[in-house]
Design brief:
Chain A is mostly beta strands. Chain A has no helices and 11 strands. Chain A is globular. By secondary structure, chain B is mostly beta strands. At the A-B interface, strand 4, strand 5 and strand 9 of A face strand 6 and strand 11 of B.
Chain lengths: ~110, ~110
């Protein structure tokens, strides 16, 4: 069972470059989330989606964009990467948050911006 | 606004002993749920235990149990008979109608 798959696992970018992180889940989950994890900060929500075609801002959305064109995929984009976006990024999904379902996490993407 | 506070950045325990990790939260929602996640050095986020707010009985999963005090908005995790494999970052989280909010984590060290 694949669960939640994040692509790529590691990436190094130069300041100003753009890239897209891909999250794919095969559990038919409605809800999907992007977090970033920084030392001493825990996990902070960037953007989330409550269904295909929907997106919403989380706690730290600036500098990121997302799209949920297909139910199983949730893309996180950095249009112009900045060193402050160096972090570990996690994608998660859940069947329905209000239904007491825990989130299932991918293995993370380590992104370094030089 | 939802907030989750873990007041212990680091904790240590002797193998086979018991340790309790603290967590407090704040939410305006009446229906919510709480989780503890474990993150070992492999970076995976692993669900340890969960609790629905309307349930008075404390959740238990093998060596892991919680002390849920709804009025005090407290949700501590007790690990009994600690094992070397329990060494990890532990995150408390509180979920509402759409979002899950995480604390900053507690790093647990298990000494042999």
């Amino acid at each position: 069972n694949a669960g939640v798959t994040q692509t790529p696992k590691f990436r190094v970018l130069k300041t100003g470059q753009s890239m897209t992180l891909l999250c794919a889940q095969d559990m038919n989950h409605e809800y999907m989330y992007w977090y970033r994890q920084d030392p001493g900060m825990g996990l902070r929500l960037i953007h989330y989606s409550v269904g295909e075609g929907t997106t919403a801002k989380g706690e730290v959305p600036d500098g990121y964009n997302v799209s949920r064109l297909k139910k199983q995929n949730f893309l996180l984009g950095l249009e112009s990467a900045a060193p402050s976006q160096t972090s570990v990024y996690f994608c998660a999904s859940s069947y329905e948050t209000g239904d007491y379902q825990p989130q299932h996490f991918g293995d993370g993407t380590r992104l370094s911006i030089l | 606004a939802q907030t989750v506070t873990q007041s212990q950045p680091e904790m240590s325990v002797q193998e086979a002993e018991t340790v309790t990790l603290s967590c407090t939260y704040d939410t305006s929602e009446s229906d919510y749920y709480l989780f503890w996640y474990k993150q070992p050095p492999s970076r995976q986020m692993i669900l340890v235990i969960r609790q629905e707010a309307y349930k008075q009985q404390n959740a238990t999963e093998n060596r892991f149990s919680v002390n849920f005090q709804k009025a005090a908005k407290s949700f501590s995790l007790k690990i009994s008979d600690s094992q070397l494999g329990d060494a990890a970052m532990y995150f408390c989280s509180q979920g509402g109608s759409e979002k899950l909010v995480f604390g900053k984590g507690t790093k647990l060290t298990v000494n042999p």
